[in-house]
Amino acid sequence: MSADSKVDQDVVAVILEDHRTMEDLFRRMRSVEADRAAALKEFSALLIAHGEAEESEVYGALKRFRGVDNEEVEHGAEEHAEGNKALLALLEVEDVGSEEWDERLEELVEAVSHHVDEEERTILNGARENVPDERRAELAVAFQKERARLLASDCGSPESVRKIVGG
């Protein structure tokens, strides 16, 4: 089955797949051989679409389940805001690969990696253990639909990220 026709039926798996894609994009953004600007553009769109879709379609639903830590869900949303600020700081550096760009990239990597690690250990493990399969499947569809809508709207542009950050 092609990737296009496959809708993953578990929101946890879909989110984890995005996390691994983000890590690959970090590697590309750090590589002098790669098109770092293109990797950043792709990363920016994915980070924004992923975070916004998580907050609108997944986090609220997960809070209703016992065994999913509501404080961690709230904290996850705060960490999205931190990651978005770090992303905007990197997007605003004009010279890709400059010392400033590299420093801001590392700040972004640190913010996002910390969030991904924490989210996987707390929220996603809680969801995997306490949310029924059919509910995780429904959330997967809602998450992917909203994420696709956001990706189609150029959500990763500096202007869009600036609006989300509130700058």
Instruction: Compute the number of helices.
Output: 6
Beta-strand portion reads under 5%
Structural class determined from secondary elements? mainly alpha
The main pleated sheet reads as:
none
Radius of gyration: 16 Å
The gross shape turns out to be elongated
User: What is the mean predicted local confidence, pLDDT?
Assistant: 93
Helix/strand order = HHHHHH
Total number of beta strands: 0
The share of residues in helices is over 70%
Uncertain residue segments: 1-6
N- and C-termini, Cα separation: 43 Å
Summarize the helices and strands and which ones pair or pack.
Elements: H1 11-30, H2 36-62, H3 70-91, H4 99-130, H5 133-152, H6 158-165
Summary keywords:
167 residues, mainly alpha, 6 helices, 0% strand, elongated, disordered N terminus
Walk me through what this model shows.
By secondary structure, this protein is mostly helical. Helices cover 77% and strands 0% of the residues. It has six helices and no strands. The chain has helices at residues 11-30, 36-62, 70-91, 99-130, 133-152, 158-165. Helix 1 (11-30) packs antiparallel against helix 2 (36-62), helix 1 (11-30) packs across helix 5 (133-152) and helix 2 (36-62) packs across helix 5. The longest helix has 32 residues, at 99-130. The protein is elongated, with a radius of gyration of 16 Å. It starts with 10 loop residues before the first helix and ends with a helix.
